[in-house]
Amino acid sequence: MNQKPIIGITMGDPAGNGPEITVKALAHAELYDRCRPIVVGDAKMIEQAAGFVGRPDMRVHRCQKVAGAQFTPGVIDVLHLDLIRDPARFAIGQVSIEGGNAAFQCVRKVIELAMAGEVDATCTNALNKEAMNKALEAAGGANSDGYTHFDGHTEIYATYTHTKKYTMMLAHHDLRVVHVSTHCSLREACDRVKKARVLEVIEIAHKACRDMGIASPRVAVAGLNPHCGENGLFGTEEIEEIKPAIEAARAEGIDAIGPCPPDSVFSEALGGWYDIVVCMYHDQGHIPLKTVGFVYDREAKSWKAVEGVNVTLGLPIIRTSVDHGTGFALAGKGTSNELSLVNAIDYAVRMALGSAPQNESEK
Prior knowledge:
Keywords: Metal-binding, NAD, Oxidoreductase
Strand order of the largest sheet: 3-4-2-1-5-14-13-6-7-10-8-9
Number of helices: 11
Number of domains: 2
Low-confidence stretches: 359-363
EC number: 1.1.1.262
CATH architecture of the largest domain: 3-Layer(aba) Sandwich
Enzyme class: oxidoreductase
Distance between the termini: 21 Å
CATH superfamily of the largest domain: Isopropylmalate Dehydrogenase
Subunit structure: Homodimer.
Structural class: alpha/beta
Cofactor: a divalent metal cation
Largest sheet: 12 strands, mixed
Number of strands: 14
């Protein structure tokens, strides 16, 4: 790629802190040295957010097409979608059909841009699932597409890119985890630990690392049960499903290691033993990532850091995201931390360029 990649950034639910952290992230002038960012959303809400965060100096430039963007520090290019009737009357920090619809339309538009090759990667701010699904139900489907429910961003991307095999990856610098299952009950998650799905996720994880420039990825595969089942004493999923999947992956030439005890594999990954960890369910991967990425300052009684990047793997386009929610309680106060979004943009840039993000100490 001869030019800096174009990154399409959704504003998220406008009732949340997405617009605010977008303004804060794009106020980092050095970001423009690495990429060409363009926001997909309602320019009126970005202008309002600039006021919330005390950055009225940031000029919002409305574009009808990506080709009309200026990509200049101090200017926030917004591919304008007229989604909020009156920002002065729009309720910040509350679930609403109008906000849910706006968030959804931004996501659908940025996918369209990526599929058409107008942006090189996409980066999403948080949406509120309740608001989005209320909007879809009220409209009787997404603009006559017929879809009245999505579990979240991942399912929207899979649907509109016609992708059948995909998974979520969370990353904090070079600590990366992928999931066999995500948004389902723990009881159902255990039932989803099957050889075919575990193998599929190992393959996706291996390919993702290769795409990021890691020549020989080391893929650790976590067990499901305590101590990996202790040879069947605490469960047989490792014997019957996980180990056969690892053996099949190794037969394909993938350096898959495991099953690894879940209580130690993440410490080993932090120590550089592995490039990515395959987790069996949502919290098995989310808890360690958020433990290292979300840092609360006891004395200041505020979040010192809210880091972490959410990536959807298996898609024909690049999608990264913040690893936090809409922050309704913080919306409108101008205090939200933009670091997760900055990291997500950087991850999108590096994936577009085919290089893997590393620890700060290794850059």
